[in-house]
Amino acid sequence: MDTPTRQAAVLAETRLSGFGASTRVLAGDGDLRWLREFFEPSLETQGQAICRATVTASVDASRFEMLQRELARYERRPYDCFTLDGSFDAFSGCHTAQGELLISLDRFDLMLRVGATKADYELVAGSTNGKLRLGLMRVVREIATVHALRAGGVPLHGAGCVRQGGAFGFLGHKTAGKTTSLIHWLRSEEARFLANDRFFLFRRRGGWVMRGMPTIVKLRPDTWQLFVDFQKRATEYPFDWNRTLAEVHEAAVQGSPGQTTTFTQAQFLRIVDRSAVSEAPLRMLLFPERDDSLHEAVYQPLSTRDAVARLEANLLSPGMTLTTAEVFDLNPNREIPRESTLRACRELVDSGCCFAYRRGIRTLSQIATLPTFSRVA
Questions:
Q1: Which residues are paired to 54 by β-bridges?
Q2: Strand partners, 340
Q3: CA–CA separation, 122 and 100 (whole Å)
Q4: Residue of 173, 221, 294, 346 with fewest CB within 10 Å of its CB?
Q5: pLDDT per position as a tens digit, 243-300
Q6: Domain ranges of the chain
């Protein structure tokens, strides 16, 4: 079967580095600009890490049909592809006689071919559509996620920002107020963005460091109602998650209205008028709780038992055993040992960084202030 290198001459190239490895990406120039805007600075284009994989993304109708015909020749089964909150996004695929893996990413109208050594990935669309960029992002992000887990990172479902040099994470269930808390804290002029939906914690120099992993930013109507100034800024410009900022600007010149509430990381940063950092020393992990009777935010230390339970519930993986995606991990043993996960959660709790973060309507109308006490992780 043909390899991705047959198309490399007509595609642009970039490298995205992070979590100890680099991924070489070949794609259309506009797709690469979008990808860089989405990932930077979490994955850097100037990193010097060893290249572990090559990903090629292209629009090729004949190639797309050929891969579909090849897939139809074999018995198929579901494969865990992309990490979600508490589960994997699975797609139908098969192994070929050459030892390669073919996956039908049907919801994205894409075909994915994985080389036998999992060193090269080919993503093919049958026609031009914005889903190619989303599929490319997911492939690159999952490769980085596998590297992060193998490097000992603790994956958490939460948002994060940096203030006074320290990282603050917001954790909780889907409607707990993570994004609301993030936007509230970003209203401070000295705040910097770190993550909007998922991040990793790494042990480093006797402490912990938080590193963000980008996702598409989705904002609910009730969140907009709390931050009307940001809502105005977002809707007066034609932001669109599958466009680069330059493409959005071009649409604005043409007079397209802005209606979306789903953004790339770069677009979200433009709306809140803040910059991003790739990582920072962990300061606090906050679990938002709403209480509209409060006039100022309350930070309440959690008991060891409660804090461990909350951390375990917010691990970005099903159950207590962290598992890597089988399509992107070379190691046939996909499980990250349970004992190391429990130990990491207990170490985080013992460092005194876990707090219930109680706030309400009155507190959200003010600029978020840091707690007067500090038990640094």
A1: 24, 120
A2: none
A3: 11
A4: 221
A5: 999 999 998 887 777 778 899 999 999 999 999 999 999 999 999 999 999 999 999 9
A6: 4-150, 154-364
**Amino acid letter at 108?**
F
Q: Give the C-alpha separation, 370 to 167, whole Å.
A: 12
CATH class given for the domain over 154-364: alpha beta
Spatial distance between the Cα atoms of 99 and 114, rounded to a whole number of angstroms: 9
Binned at pLDDT 50, 70 and 90, residue 342 comes out as confident
CA distance 218 to 260: 9
Which has the closest alpha carbon to 27: 106, 144, 136? 136
10 Å CB burial of residue 80 (0-12, 13-18, 19+) is buried
d(CA 232, CA 235): 5
Class of residue 84 by CB neighbours under 10 A (exposed 0-12, middle 13-18, buried 19+): middle
Q: How many residues are recorded in the chain? A: 377
Q: Which helix or strand (DSSP H or E) is residue 7 part of?
A: none
